[in-house]
Amino acid sequence: MQDLIVQKYGGSSVANVERIKRVAGRIIETKKKGKKVVVVVSAMGDTTDDLIDLAQKINEHPPSREMDMLLATGEQVSISLLAIAIQSMGHDVVSLTGAQCGIVTSNVHKRARINEIKTNRIEKELEAGKIVIVAGFQGINENKDITTLGRGGSDTSAVAVAAALEAELCEIYTDVDGVYTADPRIVKTASKIDEISYEEVLEMASTGAKVLHPRSVEMAEKFKVPLVVRSSYNYNEGTIIKEDVIMEKVLVRGVSLDENIAKISIFEVPDQPGIAFKLFSALAKSNIHVDMIVQNVNRTAVNDISFTIDVDELQEAVSVAQKFAFEVNAQKVEYDQGVAKLSVIGTGIVANAEIASKFFEALFELGINIQTISTSEIKISCLIDKERGKEAMVHIHKKFDM
Ligand code: ASP
Ligand code: MG
């Protein structure tokens, strides 16, 4: 759709009435430039966390379907308040839940994927000259149950809406100026990146940099949605995310730290064909995303297998692992939440072996033990002791002169 801008405002940008009013003003400015505007919002401030706490006071492991029902209310509050603000400033506006704007997802609760967006309702409202406010993070499955897209999922809602409507631009508004070489709260010398490729930002997002929901970047890349990450508190340029970014000399783009992971180890698993398949297909069936995997060589008839997962999925993953261990007669299952994944990212990494050695050297300089290493063309990650994570991040950032 021509002249259409999709804007997404995160929870901190709409955390209170003052901020909601300011965001409303900003949306109206865009509209006044002759643009059609669709806005996707997250829940106010810490609402989602507060709702989770509330549920857990009743049941430590509440059912996923009811959690989706509960968490989706957070966004329903923010869309309606924002619409009230815009309307009171004299502009036509309508707020829509995920279901109302036809965001159809898979049946998985708490981490559903968007399958389709039936855009006719949004289009109709835009044609009527309205600003459209869409609830982020939520959709509806084929049973008409409310689903959510995983923590931070409003970014994905925004990119999906932008892709479905063929928007000219998707702007992600947050509380920092853009994508940084490292988390500026941890690394004081981190600098803002002006332009970065989808591929690099996807690796950064997937390795713990809290810039964007990883799925949103995957989707932006797939549908070639031009993305900008910028602050809702100022008018600075932000970071442009696009396909090809010309980079000279810059080999390493950023360093990220994921503290939100856990390691599960299964000891003395029989060394036989089909064992890894059995374990990881069971995890996949439970929709548990596995990241780093190591199988130790034991030189006997048994192996130890370790893997990392998102800490939010620990409970489920441990029960799958225990069931597996019982079935194959493994010795025991243990888990460790005291780990973090430290990564360096950059398209120059594949062509330059020195980067890995410099990374390991930096950890050696701090006397930090590496538990697991994994690499891709544009990334090197090490699993280390969580307690040393931040310090290591600062040191690596300096070592690579980012
Ligand atoms: N409100 C949801 C969360 O806090 C979704 C989002 O913020 O993107 O995870
Ligand atoms: Mg939030």
Automatic annotation (TrEMBL):
Residue sites binding ATP per the record: K8, Y9, G10, G11, T174, D175, Y180, R185, K210, V211
Gene3D superfamilies, A to Z: Acetylglutamate kinase-like, VC0802-like
Cellular component terms per the entry's GO annotation: cytosol
Keywords associated with the record: Amino-acid biosynthesis, ATP-binding, Diaminopimelate biosynthesis, Kinase, Lysine biosynthesis, Nucleotide-binding, Repeat, Transferase
Positions with a binding annotation for substrate: T48, E75
Keyword Iron: no
Catalytic activity: L-aspartate + ATP = 4-phospho-L-aspartate + ADP
Pathway: Amino-acid biosynthesis; L-methionine biosynthesis via de novo pathway; L-homoserine from L-aspartate: step 1/3; Amino-acid biosynthesis; L-lysine biosynthesis via DAP pathway; (S)-tetrahydrodipicolinate from L-aspartate: step 1/4; Amino-acid biosynthesis; L-threonine biosynthesis; L-threonine from L-aspartate: step 1/5
One Pfam entry name: ACT_9
InterPro entries membership: AceGlu_kinase-like_sf (IPR036393), ACT-like_dom_sf (IPR045865), ACT_Aspartokinase (IPR054352), ACT_dom (IPR002912), AKii-LysC-BS (IPR041740), Asp/Glu/Uridylate_kinase (IPR001048), Asp_kin_monofn (IPR005260), Asp_kinase (IPR001341)
Annotated EC: 2.7.2.4
Main enzyme class: transferase
Domain ACT: 264-338
Gene Ontology terms for molecular function: aspartate kinase activity; ATP binding
Biological-process GO terms, alphabetical: diaminopimelate biosynthetic process; homoserine biosynthetic process; lysine biosynthetic process via diaminopimelate; threonine biosynthetic process
Family: Belongs to the aspartokinase family.
Subunit structure: Tetramer consisting of 2 isoforms Alpha (catalytic and regulation) and of a homodimer of 2 isoforms Beta (regulation).
Function field: Catalyzes the phosphorylation of the beta-carboxyl group of aspartic acid with ATP to yield 4-phospho-L-aspartate, which is involved in the branched biosynthetic pathway leading to the biosynthesis of amino acids threonine, isoleucine and methionine.
The protein, known as: Aspartokinase
Source organism of this protein record: Acetobacterium woodii (strain ATCC 29683 / DSM 1030 / JCM 2381 / KCTC 1655 / WB1)
Lineage of the organism: Bacteria, Bacillati, Bacillota, Clostridia, Eubacteriales
Originating gene: lysC1
